[in-house]
Amino acid sequence: MTISSQSLLDSAAPTSALSGKVAVVTGAAKGLGAAITLDLARQGADVVLAARDEDALHRHASVLDEEFGHRSSLVVRTDVLSENDVQQLAKETVNRFGGIDILVNSAGGTGPIETPAQNVEVEAFRQIMELNVLGTFIVCKYAIPSMIERRDGRIVNISGTSGLRGYINRAGYSSSKWAVRGLTRTLALELGQYGITVNAVCPNVTHGDRMTKIVDTKAATLGLTPEEVYDDFASQTALGRFIDSADIAAAVSFLVSSGARNITGHDIVVDAGWDV
């Protein structure tokens, strides 16, 4: 079951906890990125929505502005692998709002599914590494100067539980998520002197279109039903369930809050008790 925008909107009343803050979110058109932008907007942040699907971005921005009119949205069509696009993203954000306080890197992909390493095409491995790692690095690179100028900032990168252990038949994806954690810790060391925190959120299996694709592929490969695959994934967690995008959005919101000002270089694991 996929969490809807409306269900997240109904989950809590608007607050002013992030009033005056400017948040840039990549992968913001749908899924996890959309859920994160909803929660940040609910707390009063001005939100810059970045993704490749400009029409979907505008539709989602309209939802934010209708529900949370006390703050503003800015849509910037962005391919996170295009240095020119990301430079323009940073420029338009600074021109509109004066700077960047929060960066959430949620753009990413899955890579080859249920494919042993020897069967993974080199180009497919390269593509997922570039999207998940280089796409995170480039956006950080061009957001950091504004944060340094402000001597403050919050960066949250989306890694995953596949970056905490090996992930059989998912060599590219697992490698990329380990790399995101390494980048996160390195940036935390570099940027701490400027009052900037850098952390990662590591979700486990999450309701949504991406997980449906993974489940369907796994089921077809193993000769199982999707329901059997879902049940197997859920049984590996202490709570016996998948998580929702809203759970991850809540973790992001904590990491960008004043309550997390002394947390940096760490992973917040949202996994229903999988890695225990």
Strand content: 5-15%
Q: Helicity range of the residues?
A: 40-55%
What value does the average pLDDT take?
93
* Strand order in the largest sheet: 3-2-1-4-5-6-7
- Given helix and strand content, the structural type is alpha/beta
Q: Which labels suit this protein?
A:
276 residues; alpha/beta
Structural notes for this entry:
The protein has a seven-stranded parallel β-sheet with strand order 3-2-1-4-5-6-7, sandwiched between helices. Helix 2 packs across helix 9, helix 5 packs parallel to helix 6 and helix 7 crosses helix 8. The chain is 47% helix and 14% strand. The N terminus is likely disordered. With 276 residues, it is an alpha/beta fold. It has nine helices and seven strands; from the N terminus they run H-E-H-E-H-E-H-E-H-E-H-E-H-H-H-E. The longest helix has 29 residues. The protein is globular, with a radius of gyration of 18 Å.
